Amino acid sequence: MKKSFTLSTLMLLFSLLFSCQNKSSETAESESTVETETTASEEEQRPSPLEVKDGSIGSKTIKVQYGSPAVKGRAIWGDLVPYNVVWRTGANEATFIDIPQDITVEGQNLAAGKYSLFTIPKENGTWTVIFNSDWNLEHGHFQYDEKNDVLRVEVSPTWEETSSERLSIDIESPGLVIRWEKLKLPISIQ
Question: How far apart are CA 184 and CA 105, in angstroms?
């Protein structure tokens, strides 16, 4: 009787030990799955994807980084992006431009460096394009400070018949070209 009790006890302990090991590896597997899903979920939660573009205009190299919001059926100009108010020209953190050499923007000199890029949209006439020395702003225009403006230029927007769903800032002739919804804002750079 003592032998059968000991054998039964050993078998029970062995069963428990074996089942705990399986549960531990199942738990580890499910935890790693959760981490992967969380990481993927965080990336998917950014509704305005981060865009980075590099290019050249003549012999001048330029890099621009911005959040690319979508229209999503919304009224953009004068509504989502109000007129006569500084706009971060993108989404999330401030859009910035990195220029490793001096350039001219709309005929005015801009020294090599990194600058945040802001605009002031207007219902009629030219828009103000702003290059600000405080380029690493986590919350875009909420942290904008006019005293850090390095250059302000006036640029004429054009309105196209076709609509661009996502905001884009391309490095192409005549310099930087901002497109969103039916807006085309060409900023001349040399």
Answer: 17
Amino acid of residue 110:
L
130 backbone φψ class: left, alpha, beta (φ>0; ψ -120 to 50): beta
Yes or no: say if 163 and 128 are a contact pair by the CB < 8 Å rule: no
Q: Where are the alpha helices (DSSP H) in the chain?
A: 2-44
pTM given for the model = 0.74
* Beta carbons within 8 Å of 84's beta carbon, 6+ residues apart: 120, 121, 122
Residue with tokens 């108010």: 85
Q: Tell me the pLDDT tens digit for each residue of 131-190.
A: 999 998 766 556 789 999 999 999 999 999 999 999 999 999 999 999 999 999 999 999
> Measured between alpha carbons, how far is 182 from 165 in angstroms, rounded to an integer?
9
Strand-pair category, 60-67 with 50-57: antiparallel
For all residues of the chain together, what is the average pLDDT? 82
Cβ–Cβ < 8 Å for 69, 173: no
The set of residues, in sequence order, having a beta carbon less than 8 Å from that of 52 and lying 6+ positions away, is 63, 64, 65
Q: Are 187 and 155 in contact (CB under 8 A)?
A: yes
CA distance 37 to 109: 48
More confident residue, 48 or 19: 48
The single-letter code of the amino acid at 106 is E
Q: State the sign of the Cα–Cα–Cα–Cα dihedral 178, 184, 185, 190.
A: positive
